[in-house]
Each structure stands twice: as C-alpha cells, then as structure tokens.
Amino acid sequence: MTAALAAPSPAGGAKTRINDFSIQVATVNGSGSQTANTVLLRAIFQMGVFVSGKNLFPSNIAGLPTWFTIRASAQGYVARKASNEMLILMNPETAKEDIAKADPGALVIYDEPLQLDKLRGDLAYIPVPFQKLVTASCPEPKLHKLVKNMIYVGVASRLLGIDMEEVKKAIAKQLKGKAKAIELNQTACVAGYDWAMENLEDQDHIKVVRDNKTQGLIIVDGNEACALGALFAGVTVVGWYPITPASSLVETFIEYAEEYRKDPKTGKSTVAIVQMEDELASAGVVLSAGWAGARSMTSTAGPGISLMSEFIGLGYYVEAPGVFFNVARTGPSTGLPTRTQQSDVELCAKCSHGDTLHINLFPGTMEECFQFSYDAFDLAEKFQTPIFVVTDLDLGMQNWASKPFAYPAKPYDRGKVLNQQQLADMKDWGRYKDVDGDGICYRSLPGTPGGKGAYLTRGSGHNAYAQYSEKPEDYVEVMDRLKRKYETAKAFVPGPVFRNQGSDKGVLAFGSSDPAVIEAQDILLAQGLKTDYLRLRALPFTAEVDTYVKEKQVVYVVEQNRDGQLANLFRETYPEHATKFKSVLHYDGHAIDAKSIVDQITAFEQK
Amino acid sequence: MTTATPSAPVPAAPTNKLGFTKQDYVGSKSTLCAGCGHDAITAQIINAAFESSIEGHRVTKYSGIGCSSKTPAYFMNQGWGFNSVHGRMPSIATGASLANRTLINIGVSGDGDSMSIGMGQFVHAVRRNIPMIYIIEDNGVYGLTKGQFSATADKGSHLKSGAVNDFPPIDPCTLAIELGCGFVARCFSGNPKQLNAILKAAFAYQGTVVLDVISPCVTFNNHDASTRSYKHVKDHDFPLHDLGFIQYSEVEEVEIPAGQTEIVTFPDGSKVAIKAIHEGYEPTDRFGAMKAIHESMAKGEFLTGLLYINPTQPPLPEVLNLVDEPLATLGEDLLKPSPAELDKIMQALM
Ligand SMILES: Cc1ncc(C[n+]2csc(CCOP(=O)(O)OP(=O)(O)O)c2C)c(N)n1
Ligand code: SF4
C-alpha cells in the first residue's frame, strides 16, 4: 500500500487552516452522493464549526457531473469560496478538468485506478482503493455503488480530524430510523476511516478542531424555511406546478401539512393543495382563493412567473391577495435551470402589462425566509394585492446553518374585510372607495349574508363602486389610488439592514448575495477601504433606503444578473442620483463569491 | 277635467320559497347586441335560480373574456362575480370554490374562451370535478373580437367575409363525457323550456356540470352560410327528451310511465326525472351517450337534452377531504401550530 502524502506539505509551509477551508466533492448525479456529502457537512457542524454546503447539480436525473462544496469557516463566512483546499474526485469524466482547476497545494482524494497523480506536481494526492474497501465492508454487491461514497466520508473525516462518533451520529440523523441502511453506511464509513488511519500520514493543511459555534443551531434550506413560514401563517389554499428550484417548497409544505393541518376532531384537512395543470392555473387559484378570503400561495421560478404575468396584473388591478414565491434560477428562457441567479428583479417589480407595481420581499437569511413568508400573508391581505417573496436557488435549495426560528406570535392581520354587520351599518359601501386615504379599500367576501356587499370583480375599467366604467376620470382615480397604496406599503415592508464601517461609499445588495458582501466588506477593510453596506429587504424602497441613496457618494449595487436590474430600478426611482449607482455583477450561475465583489469594487475605486 | 278612476290593485310579484321575487335575481342591463343568444341564456339563469330558490348571496359567478363572459354582470346582483382573463375562468372558479365550499358556483364562458385559449383549464376543471355549473355559450365564432372562427366552428362553415373553416370542430359535450364529467347537457338558447329545466337540475348537482348552449351570434354568425344561424339551428335542433326537475322535499313518490322516464337521484336527495323520447336511451350510459352524440353529429344534428349523468362522483373539496367549514373563515387557532410544535420542528432540524 502506498504512503499517500507523497507530495510536499501542501500548504507550502503555511500554517494549518483550522476550521477554515472548502472541500469540493465531484460525483456523478444519481449515485447517492448527496447523502454522503450531507453527512460530512453535518459531522463538521456537529463538531461546532460553522459550515455551509452548496450543491451544484445538472438539469438531468442521473449520469451527469455534479459537485458539492462544503465550506467551513471559523469566522462564520458562509458564501461560496472560489478556491478549495480539498478535492474528492469520484467522477472519472471530470477528474482531469477538476485537477486542472485545483488550487496549488490542495489535497486530492481520488479513486486509485484513475491515476491522477502524474497530472500536476503541486497537489497532495491521496489515491484510495475504493473498490477493495467497499467489497470488504459491504456484503451486498448491489449496494456497493451507494456505500462507496461513505468511504470517502470516512477517509476525509480521518484526514480532517473529525470524530468518528459525530460521523456516525450524522449518518443516523440523515437516514432517519432506517436501521439497516444506517448500519451499512456506518460500516463503510468506518472502513474508510480505518484505512486512512493505517495508510496515510497525518496532514497539516486543513483541520477540524472542536468549537462551540453551532450549538443550538439548525441546518435548513430556504424552501423548507419558507414552507414553515407559510404553515404558521395559516395558508389555506395552495395551487402550484413543479419547477426547479421551487418544487421542494410546496413538497415540504405538503409533508408538514400532513402532520399539522388536520382538524383534530374530524381528521379533515384545513388546507387545500392542488397541483395544477400549469402556472396560469396556479395563479388563478391563488388569486381567486385570496379573493374569496383564503390565505393562498404558490411557489414557482422565473418561467412560471412569466406565464402568470397576465393573472398577476389582474390581481393587481382587481386587488386580490395572494403570495407568490419566486425561487429564482438563471434565465432567460430555460437558461441554466439548476443554477442560481437574481435575474427576475425587474420582472417581479412590475410583473404584467400596463402600469403595475408590486410589493416584493427579499429574505437574505433562513430566519428571514421563515419570517418574511409569515409576513407575506399579512401584507397580501392588508394590501389586497399579489405579494412576491423572492429567493433563489442558492437560498432555496442549499444547506444553511441558522438560529432556530422564533415563534411568530403576532396574530394574523386579515386586513380590511367587512362582515355582515359592518356592511349593514355602512351607508355607502363601494368596493374601491378610498375611505381612509391610504389607498387601501374595504372588501367583502363572497358568501357574506345580508344582501349587501356583493360586487362584480373585473379586470376592465371600473369606478369606486366596482361598476364598469371607461370614463377617463374613473380610470385615473383607480390608478392613482393603486399608486397611493404602494406608497403606503413603504411603512409596512421590512426596512433595510445596515453593516456600516463609517464610509460615504455604499454597497447595496439583497438576498443570497449577503454572505459574500459581508466577507467582501471585511476584505476591503483589510485592504484599507471602508464601506457602508445596506441590505435591501423589500420593494417599495423605504425611507431609510431613500436617505442612504441621498447621502452616499457612490453606491455599489451588487446583484447576480447581467444587466444590473436592481441598479436600474434605483436609477429610475432616483434619477437625480443616477450616476452614483455602479453595478457589481455576478451571473455565471454559481453563487456569488466575495472575491469577485472585491475585484470589481477595487477596479472601480482605481478608476 | 279628469277624475282618477280607482285602478285595480297591482298584484304582488310572486315570490319563491325564500320570499324573493324574480327581480331579486336580475343583474345590470345587458350591453350585448339586441337579439344575442347569450341574453336568452341569461334570462333562463334568472328564471331557474328564482324557481330553485337559490340563495343569492351564496352565488359566485365566474367568466373569462368575450361577449359571453360579460353576462355574469347581467344576472343575480346579489352574488359575487369575477370576470377574469381570457380562457382562465376555470382556475378562478377552482380557487374560490376551495376557499369556500359552501358557495354555489356558476361559470359562463364562450366557445372561444373555453375551447381555444382555455382548453387546458376546461379539461382540468372537468377532470377535477370542481363544483360549478359551467355554461359554454357556443356561437362558433369570436364575438367580441368581431367574428373570427372559434374551435367549435363546423368544418366548411363560412365567415361573413367569406373565409372557410378548414378544421373539424371540437365538441365540448363528448369531450366532457370523455373526461369523466358527471353531468353533460346541450341546449339551444332558443328553447327556453328545456334550458330552464336543465339549469334547475344543474343547481341540484354537486360536481361539474358542463352545459353547452348553442347560442347564435346575431351579428357575426347569423348569415345564410353559417351552421349556427337561428334558422339552421332551429331546423336541426333535435330535442332528446323532456326533463322535469322535482324537489325531493315536495315529492315522495314519482310516477314513472313504464319504459319512458328515468329518475336520477342527486346526493342531496333531490331527483331529476328524465323522459326519454328515444325508446331505450340511457342517460347514465356513458358509451351510449357518446354514440348518440356522434351519430347525431354525423347527421348534422344538435342532440339536446341531458346527455349524460352520473351523480355519484365526489366533487373536489370532498376528494381533498376538506373540513366542512369554509377554509376562508377558519380561525387562527385551527391554522397556526403551537410554540411547542415549532420547537419540535426545530429540534428535528438540529
Ligand atoms: C390573452 C388574450 N388574447 C386575446 C384576447 C382578445 N379576445 C377577447 S374576446 C376573444 C374571443 C371571445 O370569443 P368567445 O369566447 O367565443 O366569446 P363570444 O364573444 O363569442 O361570446 C378574444 C380572442 C384577450 N382578451 N386576451
Ligand atoms: S357580437 Fe355576437 S356574441 Fe357578441 S353580443 Fe353581439 S350577437 Fe352576441
């Protein structure tokens, strides 16, 4: 057996990176590697080390290359890191390419027969006899393919100094109660661990050392967090259509609904969930259910929003509530359907034809995914309009460590709904009358008895009494009131979050860019550039956003799309400050990393 | 000099079981062309709802876009209406009917609205058996966009401009039967008696009712070369059977003339009596219904009447096992899990 670490000490004399590294695992999708990768991630997490995981997967079911990166960070940075300190290469198809891209000094775990060690001299190669180990540790040949991945978990754990007990615990957690599978996987993992102990020298490149940064934290993805928010918000009607990366939002919701949405007395369901024939139908269900008084939602991605846009305009104009989750992915068209982007900014801000303006919520953390999803239902009913909750594949489908979610104690705000008595007491009710001057009218729900309150909802011109009207003054009155309603929303949507270093140079971003911006800000500071960071959390722009734009000398708008869509919205809203906005962009489908932000801002500063 | 002559007292307008007059079921004034078949349908919806003592506030009216889709404004002002977007009325009816399962849902659409742009939603609404009376006001043309062909236009029929339709029509009735619809009927807007009876039966039915009403467009499709003109339809309208609606509460036993009348019982206990004109026609026989419709189509006839019925199919809220109360008005106590439950969920994620 070969002594593995034939290459020079990979760090080239640099000191060991403790709890601060990135591991990339290259596998073939459909090979069950997701379980192995999650176990490795969990084991590090259980060691008390802050960790994040990103799965880069292709748009097919089995056979194409997939990469999973695990970043551990003692400082708590969780953005994607463009460089990796350890590579685990299980896919012969991509192995050479992966080697070519590796950073000097990286540890490379690979399947022995691949013979990669001659390709470059500046990497530390660890050939592992996977086939031999799997044959010895797993009696059933047909399961070899699945447990083979656990062997690299064992090898990596040993090299990194992860406690085997933590790995075993992670396996048990991941395979929830499936005793035989747990045993098989644990055995394979131990086989890898033991082999590494006997055959490999210790390495001092990267290490996991027990810490206390993750006690009491959860690991969750944004789609699950949003599903939970909707569950607690009391959603009662869901119409949806599958699309990556949004499907798991409703799928997870369905699982929770099984347990938490049955009437205890009758066992009957308190939520209607229908997989519709397409996104058009889903949007129709959401808006009409909202119109009839239900809390309703759908989850989709860009192509779905495109299809829904006619309905969303209707919802805006007739003032029907509904929550639309957009878990964004790359566009245009099919784009890279399993990669992340923030390229639906302009679409969601003004979705549909004609003059439309929509309230958007942009969660940037798992806690916000939960909380904003909860709040979205209040806002939809309060403002009687479609609300977008915009996340993306990175937030929605990747693993994030988070504080457990706080119980949303705030009671539901069902908005200005009139009951039979209130309708009877009102002398002059008009569905679209702006009684309070805030642009928000009083509505009645279908089925309210008493003979008052009925009206015909229509997408064509109407007056304050919901009557058909093509009179110019009636049309203008409604359109101006809708604008007033949007203005009112400024006081109710979540304001921005600041991370200021006392600078007149602003950085502005939203959603999943947040971790990379935070890290970039620290790197820039170390290089001598102070910045003030505003994380936008909603449309319309609130008063604090207003002040920030007016006060800063320059505003770097960081976003994950080609055209600087958010910057465009800012230029349009603040034309007199238009030249302040500089776009810092990232749009290759990978989650944004700190380095690309630092590089672009530095280049602007040097101009 | 004139002296007031004592006039006879004006007789009070008749009321229904709920104490409403027919006037309580009307809507705003129609803006359709004088003589449009759609207005005749509106009149029968009003009559049938009045005679069936429908509670106006429980009625919801849905439509897409088109002349036909305007009609919900013209009946039952006591009910809530939703005039939505072109072809997508079925999903609007689906969401609202799930939000509040106690509503009585009436959808009005056109043949263009339902059989062209809205075909997908039509098919799936029927397949899901959403509780609604789905009326297609079928004139074979697009009225509101001024006379283009719709997907129900007969092959070889002409537009006013002279253009000829090269494609075979889609028949909503055979399609609905194929999809498993439990109540499929065809009427002619010029035959109010039959339409009235079918509508009353439809009010008693619990799932999707597909009611294709041949409704001539007097402005764009009433010329001599059209297969949907009044004259053409009147000459080819072939009523299948008489149909009487009997309220269960009023009738204990129904006399059925041997071999001629069939009583179909609805889930709520009310019954429809069907008097077949054709000896042996079985409205509960799915394949027989398909055959009869196809045969009459081959002869260029419109077979009208209750073509197919199967009252046993559960409507969507039942399939989904929803609580009996409207979802729309459930309290927070039933909807929001407790802090302990959130804690349990969080523990599982740790
Ligand atoms: C998305 C969209 N496309 C096209 C139209 C234009 N349009 C309005 S009504 C109509 C056809 C209506 O025909 P039909 O449903 O047969 O109703 P009718 O007017 O004949 O009663 C069309 C195409 C529209 N409103 N929306
Ligand atoms: S155009 Fe035709 S369908 Fe439209 S209102 Fe006139 S007659 Fe009726």
Secondary structure: elements and pairs:
The complex is a heterodimer of chains A (607) and B (350).
Chain A (H helix, E strand, L loop, with lengths): L16 E2 L1 E9 L4 H14 L4 E6 L8 E9 L12 E4 L2 H10 L5 E5 L12 E5 L1 H8 L6 H17 L3 H11 L4 H21 L6 E2 L10 E3 L1 H11 L4 E4 L6 H14 L11 E4 L3 H13 L4 E5 L1 H17 L3 E7 L16 H5 L9 E3 L4 H18 L2 E7 H5 L2 E3 L14 E2 L1 H6 L17 E2 L11 E3 L13 H18 L7 E4 L4 E6 L3 H13 L5 E5 L1 E2 L3 H9 L2 E6 L5 H9 L7 E5 L8 H13 L1
Parallel strand pairs in A: 1-8, 2-5, 5-6, 6-7, 10-11, 10-12, 12-13, 13-15, 14-15, 17-18, 21-22, 21-24, 24-25
Antiparallel strand pairs in A: 2-4, 3-4, 9-16, 14-23, 20-22
Helix pairs in contact in A: 1-4, 1-5, 3-4, 3-6, 4-6, 5-6, 7-8, 7-12, 9-10, 16-19
Chain B lengths: L36 H15 L7 E5 L3 H4 L9 E4 L5 H11 L4 E7 H7 L1 H10 L3 E7 L2 E2 L5 E2 L22 H7 L4 E6 L3 H13 L3 E7 L15 H7 E3 L1 E6 L14 E5 L5 E6 L9 H13 L3 E8 L6 H4 L12 H4 L3 H11 L1
Parallel strand pairs in B: 1-2, 1-3, 3-4, 4-8, 7-8, 9-13
Antiparallel strand pairs in B: 5-6, 7-13, 10-12, 11-12
Helix pairs in contact in B: 1-7, 3-5, 4-5, 6-9
The complex binds thiamine diphosphate and iron/sulfur cluster.
The site of iron/sulfur cluster has 12 residues of chain B, from loops.
Keywords (chain A): Oxidoreductase, Pyruvate
InterPro entries (chain A): 2-oxoacid/accept_OxRdtase_asu, Pyruvate:ferred/Flavod_OxRd, Pyrv/ketoisovalerate_OxRed_cat, Pyrv_Fd/Flavodoxin_OxRdtase_N, Pyrv_flavodox_OxRed_cen, THDP-binding, Transketo_C/PFOR_II
Organism (chain A): Geothrix edaphica
